[in-house]
Amino acid sequence: MSALLDVDDVARSFGGVRALDGVSFRVDEGEIVCIIGPNGAGKTTLFNVISGVMRPSKGDVRFRGRSVVGMPSHRIAAAGIGRTYQVVRPFSRLTVLENVMVGALLHERGLAPTRRTAATILEAVGLERFADAPAESLTLTQRKRLEVARTLAIRPKLLLLDEVMAGLTPTEADAMCAFLRTLHEQGIAAIGAVEHVMRVVMSISHRIVVLDFGKTIAQGTPAEVSADPAVIEAYFGATP
Amino acid sequence: MTDRRIAASVAILALCAILPPLGSGYVQSVFYIAVLYIALAYGWNVIAGYGGYLSFGQVTFFGIGAYAVALGVTQLHLPWLLCAFAGGAIAAVLAVPLGYLMLRLRGPFFALGMLGLAQTTRIAAEAAPFTGGSAGIYLPPGSNTLPAYYWTLAVLALAMGMTLWVDRSTFGLRLRALRADERAAGTLGVDVTRFKVMAFVISAIVPGLLGGGYAWYLTYVDPASVFSTHIELQTVAMVILGGVGTYWGPFVGGALMSQVSQSLGARFPQGHLMIFGGLIVALLIALPRGIVPALTAALARRSARA
């Protein structure tokens, strides 16, 4: 069986800094994979490469068997990869509903059906009360939900979630986990980039990929990864 | 709400169509200049207001339209209206490659790039063998104010119609999304380049059509007066004053500024630009987002209190 997403020896440098240095992993249909790693490990750069915001300096990214390297980001979105941003920044001067409509436009024609689709998605994430409010008026938690909602509107097969757990209270994080499980039930694969919140990572991931200084230092099931000496070293320092 | 905007626009345009023939030649000129600037402001508002690309070079297309009429009438002996139409068409066709090229620049770089483009076309018009150089081209004399005025009014109606369409369409939604965040719009499936170029083309057609009317109105065209930085800056200032990216902003800003500018020019021929600049600065300090958003906010507050 071919993987849904195949990241193959991807490297990306900025000047002399190697943000990504030979990263390889795969994601199967419906799978939840968490990319963990400390700040600066290269998680966001990896997402930028997969979503077409940046080109890799080396390596290939294949989605459903086709290379997406060099494709403009709107075509990658149309192919079925949705991504959220770490710094949530809803479209300013657009309402909450309009923010979701932008994504929904990928599959709808005309304002009225787009509006209906977007309203359904807002309801699913519990933001329907704020539909006509300016997006800037939402709280951080609500903005994170809006960020996910507008990405879901493009009907992705694979969702890249950049630090969606960061800044959430434990209760909110649990709600986000429950939400990710519903995605899994709908057959949507997800890659979550996570810096902390290990409890969450361990409970929802099918597989974990550990990044450190742009390199994959370990990957496997949660149990395998948490027993890996390289991971323990990266997170807790060298063992004597 | 939208229906009211259409009705109000039609009423204003009808008034603008009826009044000028009743007045003197001076009144007609005043109307012509006002309507010209309001229409230019609407054209500029699409790429700059909705698209977020502040252009300082849309006057390029104005000049091209003016030369289309000047050359078409004097060299090819075509009817001026046909040439004025052609000016809009040429502007649209040129705007596609220029848009792909220029819209790679962002923010101040785009603004300066467009300013450079306008200067380049002005210099090209001075140097080209068939434009009469900086001496310009004289058109057959005649009293052309009213025909030029009605042409300009028709273009204004078109520009207002296009703005309403942008405001209410999926195109406008995509444009406003990319204005806020191009990268996020891209990863949500918006073909950012294509929609920016479309907006740029709309913002080129309007001055392209207007330039021909201006040539006919002046019966004289030279590079300095049609590729004019003054026209460009005045247009930009009008939209900013009225309210960028709003439907009524260009109208309010354009009507107000063209009147103030003309009467100041008549009263203080030496210092009017200085007074005018000071007025704009003062107004923008008081109403940083422009007149129309400030009024809308004030009305919203009043209805909230009631």
Summary, kept brief:
The complex is a heterodimer of chains A (about 240) and B (about 300). Helices cover about 35% and strands about 25% of the residues of chain A.
Provide keyphrases for this structure.
heterodimer, A: 240 residues, alpha/beta, 6-stranded mixed β-sheet, 4-stranded antiparallel β-sheet, 10 strands, 37% helix, B: 306 residues, mainly alpha, two-stranded antiparallel ribbon, 14 helices, globular
Topology:
The complex is a heterodimer of chains A (240) and B (306).
Chain A: E1 5-14, E2 17-27, E3 32-36, H1 43-50, E4 58-63, E5 66-67, H2 73-79, E6 81-83, H3 96-104, H4 111-124, H5 140-152, E7 158-162, H6 170-185, E8 189-194, H7 198-204, E9 207-212, E10 215-220, H8 222-227, H9 229-236
Parallel strand pairs in A: 3-8, 3-9, 6-7, 7-8
Antiparallel strand pairs in A: 1-2, 1-4, 4-5, 9-10
Chain B: H1 2-18, H2 25-50, H3 59-74, H4 80-102, H5 107-127, E1 137-138, H6 145-168, H7 170-180, H8 182-187, H9 192-218, E2 220-221, H10 223-226, H11 229-242, H12 249-267, H13 272-286, H14 291-305
Antiparallel strand pairs in B: 1-2
Helix pairs in contact in B: 1-6, 2-6, 2-9, 2-11, 2-12, 3-4, 3-5, 3-9, 4-9, 6-7, 6-9, 7-9, 11-12, 12-13
